[in-house]
Structures are given as structure tokens and as C-alpha cells.
Prior knowledge:
157 residues; alpha+beta; 4 helices; 30% helix
Amino acid sequence: MPExxxxxxxxxxxxxxxxxxxxxxxxxxxxxxxEYAISADVCFAINxxxxxxxxxxxxxxxxxxxxxxxxxxxxxxxxxxxxxxxxFVIEDKAPHFNPLDPALLNQADIAHTLxxxxxxxxxxxxxxxxxxxxxxxxxxxxxRLMIGFPIPPAGHS
Length: 157
């Protein structure tokens, strides 16, 4: 009897505009992390950034309209510097919103004490801190956000 082939993670996950749907992302990222020998720290950064971006689409872009789609795809990109990245591409049908607009980053006040901390408003800062690369493209109907994370060179575990 032939041995079953190893199960490869899906390259794309399709979600509807519901916060409950976001629970499907974590196991998918875990599979990808195992496949590409991603460290626990980078896996944490991926989950943090994806959760932030996706929850903002659902809450602010879709205003919790559960029928609207979100797709997240994943691929490996090799840059001329031979740096490899796992790139997540998030596409939605929400109104245009560029989370990389420098004005938005400047609007998020930095708290100097715990008493100054206010909930929300730090997601854009988190994306900039934890992602290896970020790129935004407005689509005819929606947005495309690409978030890259460094991965070990091929053949290194």
C-alpha cells in the first residue's frame, strides 16, 4: 500500500466578514509555520498582524456585514537580496483604506504611562513593528494589503 503524501497547507483561505470566522486563521498559520520552519516569534507576529488587519476589515470596513468576502493568500517571495519572505495578501471589498498612510501612523498617540493608554488605535503601529514588509494597493472595488515576514532560507530547518 503506498504511503500517503504529506498534507500541504492551503495557499489561500476564504472568509466571510464575521469576527467568528477569524478563528479559522490561526490553525492555517500554524500549518504554514510548520511547513516553512517559521520560528514561534515570527508565527506570533504573523497571527498578530493578520488578526489586526482582518478584524479591522470586519469591524470598520464591513461594519460587521457577514456576507462580504475576505481572502487571504500566502506565497513565498524571494527578493534580489536573497531574503525570503512568507507574504500574506489580504483582499477585501471594503471602501478604500490605506493603513500605511504616514498620516495615520502619526495620529496614533504614544502613551507615556499606563494611565494614558486608550483602547484601539494602535493596530497600524503594530503592523509596522511586527511585519517584515508592508505594501498596499487600492483595488477597483476594495483593498489589497500585502504583509511579509522573513523565513529561513530553503533547506534550513
